[in-house]
Here is the input.
Amino acid sequence: MAGRMLDRMFEPVDAASMVAIRVLFGVLMALGVVRFWAMGWIEALYVTPKFYFSYWGLSWIKPLPQPGMSLVFGVMLVASILIALGKWYRVAAIAFFVAFTYVELVDQTNYLNHYYLVSLAALMLVCMPLAGRPSTVPRWTIWTLRLQLGLVYTFAGLAKLNVDWLFAGQPLMIWLEARQGIPIVGPLLAWDVIAHVMSWAGAAFDLSIFAALSWSRTRPLAYLAVIGFHVMTWLLFPIGIFPWVMIALTTVFFPPDWPRRWLPARALNRVLSTPGPSDSPRHERLVLAVLGVYFAVQLIVPLRHLAYPGSDHWHMQAFRFSWKVMLVEKTGMVEFRVVDPTSGRRWVVAPNEELTRTQTQMMSMQPDMILSYAHHIARRMAAQGYRDVAVYADAWASLNGRPSQRLIDPDTDLAAVRDGFANKAWIVAERPRP
Here is the structure.
């Protein structure tokens, strides 16, 4: 049984579907980079800020000066085009993965689940034999992408099985009420029942779509549901190219030769060779080892929130990289008190005096970012000659329409707190929904 499964994993199959995904991914990434440039986000997110929120353990990753950041995005644009064309493919895929991931690791402020998925998809493309005009690929290339998408959908669905989403209709109720100005359907979005129906439908979609796409009999209707679901989210919410990335990647569930059935032969001949036997080396042990480690990480990381007490929607520990998609509408405010124990002097620090508006908004509701900024304040004060100051946060937050409450223990000296994976006991426990 295991031997047959192994043979099936490395069996050569038509490369058409994976080449289609390569082309679509490259085109979408190129459009994304152009959009980022046109909107002025390179300047706003990576040049204008005076301070950047590093990920724990990655404080050595810093933004480049403005010409350098523009060059990084230029590399991404060129690499995206080369990926689509299959030219210098391996170099282009590595360059895109490194450049894109670097940009996303510069500042926690800019984290989005779909950026994380793009990094993972780019990493997978690096490892796949899709250069030039391939005729076949090993079946594991298709299986691994299917499994990755299945994990995204499944974990997103499991995360929706909570009181706020299923029984309070939150945060969809808040978001839909803010979109009443949409022509024709806008007035309907203010109805509470619409938010509840969409919440249950969203959870059902995420939990069932992997199985529905995997079964040939339900696959056509399931893919129509994928298109409908992601187009609707694109119309209702400002989430960029993510819906189109998911629509493109999900074509991997169709038979490997589907493009040959639906697309003109003349166009296909430019990117594909006629299918034939594969003589490429299998490297079975290496491939199995790498895939085993990769998917072990993909299973463990989204489940790490179970190690922390309370709602990760509130304390935000283990929230990132866990496919918690569109689950939180959280607002907050924070002010820092600084005390010099030697002189007794006190200062009040308002973050918006140094941070951008987006950074202030994101930091005010995320305890690890509040801790990071408290450490920054302590370092800044030390540079001014005030060593060993104590930094306290007066932080309040509201989650999914609840009344605002304290987020951080105001008596904890955050300058003396070390960051890491340990439970952050200085986060005030969330009060239950009234």
Q: What stands out?
A: The chain has a mean pLDDT of 91. The two ends are 54 Å apart (CA to CA).
